[in-house]
Amino acid sequence: MTALIFSGMMLVALGWFGRTLYRRVMILLKAQPEDRFDNIPERIKAVLVYAFGQRKFIVPDPPPGSPISEWKAGWLHFFVFWGFMILAIQVLTMFGRAYSDHFYVPLFSPDLLGGPYFFLKDVMEVIVLVCVVFLITRWAITHPKRLYGFLPAEERLAKQSHWEAYVILCFIGGIMIGGKLYDGGRMIYAAANPEVQSEAAWQPFTRMVGHALAGWFGTEGAKFFSDFGWWLHNTIILVFLNLLPLSKHFHIITSLPNVFFLKTQPKGALSKQDLENATRFGSSHINHFTWKQVLDMYSCTECGRCSSHCPATQSGKLLAPRQLLLNLRDYLYSHENEMLALPMAATAATAAGETQNVGENIVGEKLILDEVLWACTTCRACEEACPVLIEYVDKIVDMRRHLVQEEARFPTELTRTFKAMETQSNPWGVDASQRDAWATGLGIPTMAEKPDAEYLYYVGCAGAFDDRAKRTTQAVAKILKEAGVDFAILGKEELCNGETARRIGNEYLFQSMAQMNVEVLNGYAVKKIITNCPHCFNTLKNEYPQFGGHYEVYHATEFVQRLVAHGRIRFATDGARTVTYHDSCYLGRYNEVYDAPRRILQSIPGLKLKEPVRSRRFGMCCGAGGGRMWMEEDPDKRVNLRRVEQLLETEPDAVAVACPFCMTMIDDGLKSKNLEEKVQALDVMEIVAERMQTGSGA
Fold first, then answer.
1. Fewer CB atoms inside 10 A, N or C side of the chain?
2. Cα gap 583→592, rounded to integer Å
3. What 3-state class would DSSP assign to 170?
4. pTM for this structure?
């Protein structure tokens, strides 16, 4: 009878789960196509490191005590995850016991691998139970701020008492308890069975449960609780299975494929739109997202790490990456039937974007407010923090593309920025003829004068037109000349690379500028480029290959660090100075350049480098990226002020940066606190030029 009843339960549960999963997979197939099947070895490695290794949960992490440190919760999740992985054999065993008391998963019988596995299972059940107790305590008592701290008080209170978290945790605890009751009772009522004796020898905690049941309830009682544990365990598994797709725990199923289909192209490369053949120019309806972007929606763990790291969220703006994704996911689920009614994405019409739109325009008052999208600095802090590698920036830029290119709806100050880029090829709107004015009297050749120069020094708009950044530009040129580097500049021929336009959503303007720039660069057969602006660096290195521009691109800190290492730049001792270094998002998180600027600073005699709590991949954005440099900001919600406060905690004499945008924001932050006389904002290149010995280069 047990086998018959359980078989019926299993057929119903698996059938309903299969139906739900089928519908979710079909939605993926109806979403926009995207190629994510390249670089298979890299994808397998990512699954091993981030999914099975749980790297984002445990290492590296900000130091304990940091406001964004999550090492405790990370380890709790690590043990719960591996508990489930290890106990998968136990689940199959328990299911098989419906049909035979002697069932074992092949290779896991007591005379094979069963002994060591029984011990590991026994320990993991206890560890997972302890973790569940801690997690329930966090939900019920401590209320982790990262989960709902960015929401209004009323909504936060409602979310904190949400039933789902408690049900899931109780289910997990019930599975562990059910397993312990089943095995513990079985060790008593079937003690004469040699198989049970072998199992008992490897399971000290389960033996304790068995002895307790025998002492309190006798052999018959132990049999009753063993049977009860079996039904409890298996019933929860079947119910849990069907709850997964309806809850945030769907990520248990989707997180592994989501990690597998990570972006293997450079992090700093946005997708290239086919402007000639496209019938739409951004994402404005739920069916405009790609299947990978939909898989991201499925995979959100709702942990809140993205929002706890987001500078927009932390400065009080409307953007909270977690909530943005959940809003999209919930809207998708509410229009599931409409999505399923679409033709397959593989059809030509769908691929060209010619299908009917599902639901309403989600960009605007209906779902995703304009202010939410414009608050993003594209810093990737959210993506770096996400344990399942969800991609936020591409979705936000795709929705910005819709606003800019289809609705011409954007902050009014960007009108001036776009016009300046179109007419003067720089966001400042300064006369393009002044692009090389910074080099007057420095004897720096242009590519026209020296077309065989080994390196092109690409100055960028900030370095050419911003008065503060010009000092850094001149410092770089001075260093290169001192080291005997064979370089030249484009001078008046240099054009804006268009990075700002692309991040804002003006893909058409970006592509126009990129194509013109590539023509100039390829016309001089440029092979190697040095630039001090991380935004220029990222675009030239990672996005220009989309337009036929293939170059070796070096950020100035990378290049100068090599010069220092090879003795082509030497430093003089010139007094002590305490410096803290601010990581640029487009140099660090986008391109993994963390060590070069630090090694330069550490090699300078008398200079002491002190790290802020939030540094490297956890460093906070200055607030200028993603076009925010050109948008107005509420004085009470300025990201740069919060970043400056963090940097000042190190009590520095100077804040070192490696980006002209960061220089502007940090310098302004220091001035707003009336500290510009006490603490300087200096580019790493300025510090090098100031401290290097002249006449020491090659």
1. N
2. 10
3. helix
4. 0.90
